[in-house]
Specification:
293 residues; alpha/beta; 13 helices; 52% helix; Helix-turn-helix transcriptional regulator; Cro/C1-type_HTH; Lambda_DNA-bd_dom_sf; DUF5753
Length: 293
């Protein structure tokens, strides 16, 4: 059974503590790698929380940094142990964006810009299935179903009655116009967006075609923020074979400024709802199977 401990967050915090110890020692990652006969990239991945870290790694690093306080060593060793436990997503097998899921699960707020798709946290099951089939044409039916189940499970973060994720989504009009699956699926998806946008912790804005050029034309991104001040805000950029996580303050600031421009150029929340309902009505009227709706 998956543990309630978030292993992604544990790795991230452990990496931050190890980086602090290295900097206090005045050593570079390259120097540490030479001492331990490992690659510099391994040290970097351990510090940024992208690689699983063992208690042996912690022990060796504490030795290099001359950490003599057993309480510190024991605390770091416990974090390493917890970082190797499994989050709920591991029950679904190999998920390529599992690091992101771990961060999303622990985030307190999320700002998303999507250029061609409805954000995963706001997708209906029908839309999610059609998106997965279309974007992963070689997947088996079982693999598609597994991906959809993970997406539906992720959505519990925005429906949690006690601690819902604060979600702000700016969606390009093209994501609403692209017929994913069929018109019936799109109509249901748009009505779902409108319904969820009425929740106090969810804001949905549409960026219409007529705004012209805008800062999001280079592609989608999201900004994750966390309750614990130890956890730095992170910009997530999704790739085909690998993802990019930006945590440097200057990078996060640059994307935050970009997001503010997108929010200002997009329709406000109420006008966005009206816009989505008009498109949903267009789908309904042009759907030959919609007579029963």
């Amino acid at each position: 059974m998956a543990s309630s401990v978030n292993p992604t967050v544990r790795r991230r915090r452990l990496g931050q503590e190890l980086r602090k110890l290295r900097e206090l020692k005045g050593m570079t990652a390259e120097e540490v790698a030479e001492r331990l006969l490992v690659s510099q990239s391994k040290i970097s991945r351990l510090e940024n929380g992208r690689r699983s870290i063992s208690q042996r790694d912690v022990r060796d690093l504490c030795g290099v940094y001359g950490v003599e306080d057993h309480r510190i060593v024991d605390s770091l060793m416990q974090m390493a142990k917890e970082s190797r436990q499994q989050g709920w997503w591991h029950a679904f097998g190999d998920i390529p964006y599992s690091v992101y899921i771990g961060l999303e699960t622990d985030a307190s707020s999320l700002r998303i810009y999507e250029a061609s798709l409805v954000p995963g946290l706001l997708q209906t099951q029908g839309y999610a299935g059609a998106v997965t089939e279309g974007s992963w044409p070689e997947a088996t039916a079982a693999e598609v179903e597994r991906r959809v189940q993970v997406r539906m499970r992720r959505q519990e973060r925005i429906t949690d009655p006690d601690n819902p994720l604060r979600l702000w989504a700016v969606i390009d009009e093209s994501a609403l116009r692209r017929i994913v699956g069929n018109r019936s699926i799109m109509c249901e998806q748009l009505e779902h967006l409108v319904e969820f946008s009425l929740r106090p912790h969810i804001t949905v804005q549409v960026l219409p075609y007529d705004v012209g050029a805008h800062p999001g034309m280079y592609g989608k991104f999201c900004i994750l923020e966390f309750q614990d001040p130890q956890d730095a805000s992170t910009v997530y950029l999704e790739g085909i074979t690998s993802d990019l996580y930006l945590e440097k303050p200057n990078d996060v600031q640059a994307y935050s400024v970009m997001y503010e421009h997108l929010r200002m150029q997009a329709l406000n929340a109420e006008h966005s709802r009206q816009f989505m309902l008009r498109i949903a009505d267009e789908y309904r009227r042009s759907d030959p199977n919609a007579s029963a709706r």
